Amino acid sequence: MASYPSLSTKEYFIALIQIDSDRKSFWCNLLKTLVLSRTTSLRFFGLEMLVRSCPRLQAVDVSHCCQFGDRETATLSCAAELREIKMDKCLKLTDVGLAKIVVRCEKLEKMSLKWYLDITYLGIEG
Out of the domains of life, which is the source (predicted)? Predict the structure, then answer.
């Protein structure tokens, strides 16, 4: 990290996954919390790689990710240990994506949702 002082921790993490695939399994196995808030190019295929590489992932913050929607939520719902997710102002998320998280993430304890246009009363209460 000292070699790249301008990178934040999350940017460094993503860069390491792309560059150092041989050693990623060690530190990915230890990762429990991931903050991707305000990431502009977050897509399902990147999340799929993260979920597969980080089996102990318990908390994820994808708030304010403008491209985060139902497909990305479905991918993230495969994180078996997920206990907490923050999805504030992910404007492409709908009731369908919300349902996938609720149904598949059996250990989920806390979810943050704010500023939604396409999540209805049925999605919250259903």
Answer: Eukaryota
